[in-house]
Amino acid sequence: MERDVPKQLHLCQMFFYSPISNTILSWADPDDRQIEGLTSFSYWQDIARTLEQGCFDAVFLADTQVARSEYEGQPDAALKYGVVWPAHDPVPIAAVMASATEHLGIAITQSTAGTAPYVAMRKLSTLDCLSHGRVAWNIVTGGFAAEHFAVGVGTAPDTETRYAQADEYVAICKQLWDSVPADAILADRSTGIFADPSKIKRVDFEGSYLRCKAVSAALPSPQGYPVLVMAGASGPGVSFAAHHAEVVFANQPTVEAMRAVQAKFDAAAAEIGREEPIRILFGVQVIVADDREGAQRIADRLAAKVPLEASLARLSSSIGIDLSTFDPDEPFTPTQGRGSQGHLASYTSRIDGRQPTLREVAGRVAISSGAPQVFGSPQEVADQLEQLWRDTGCHGFNIYSPIVPAGIDRFVKDVVPLLQEKGIFRRRYEGRNLRENIVGD
Prior knowledge:
alpha/beta; eight-stranded parallel β-barrel; two-stranded antiparallel sheet; 16 helices
């Protein structure tokens, strides 16, 4: 079906809590401050305030729990070049950023591998209550083999099994969130009655993979429960999103690929009779400079730093294939891996009518995670974002800034006002919580 373009563009800002925000070796750029941010509360608080000044929906804290070790069967390349390593826990930073802001949402990646649903629900709910309803949960199913070994649950199951387990995981969390309605909390000082037990449900879940018998330990938040988001685009991932996700983060290299992915999600939603659309935010790497030539120089400077070994290490872990024995100058055409099947499909898609080589794919993933680059002067960037938004009918964009925080500062200062002047981006937050801000037009 043809999607209607939303009335308003939505923006999130993507990070890893690691030496790189997205681009391999960006930490080595003289203008980047991400390494300092690994040990600084104020770094993250300042970024949060800037994003809120720019009326962003949320910051998206991506996460990889472990050093990536698919390449050559060991993590040395990831360790050597700081490829999403070290990978600190994003939850404390979510609290730090929320404490410095009043409206900015915080999307936290939490894997369903190795942590009980009750524990994850309690953690997310606590942050959602503290932030007055500004938390989203990016649901990932643990596609990295090293992650499963690290948390002691053995080898990673196949994609179908991972999503079947995740379906039960989310079902448990939803039942726990629904178990304590807002009107069950009385907190009546005159009577000494805190809650009405008759209104609180006991969860008794018995699934094929998971079990839970409990009452939620958290207060209901102003938005009921965190906004549910995900980033999977494989067959099982699309089906999972149709059942659970309110927002999807996706990377696709071209307008045609973006439209095709949206059509997949629309078809999956229609198949189960879902009436609410699946709102998709596509990843785009944004580089703003005084002019297009200046932005190109930044892009070239970043690309020149990245060794092929580091690029292949990242790509290997993303798709679950050891690429150390592949010829980098041959067309890249693997058909399966144990990692993200959605990423694999995106990376191997044809560009300009031809199959890209492994070297080209690895380089693209190293710089922008396979997302398209939008760069130039502030006006050129604003115009490109508007055109891409209108051409795809997507909900908005997940912004990747290769140099932080300078790239974020420049975008908010110079590009956001142009988007506002176009009438396609908010000038102030209208919603009372994240769900109202990010789900609405």
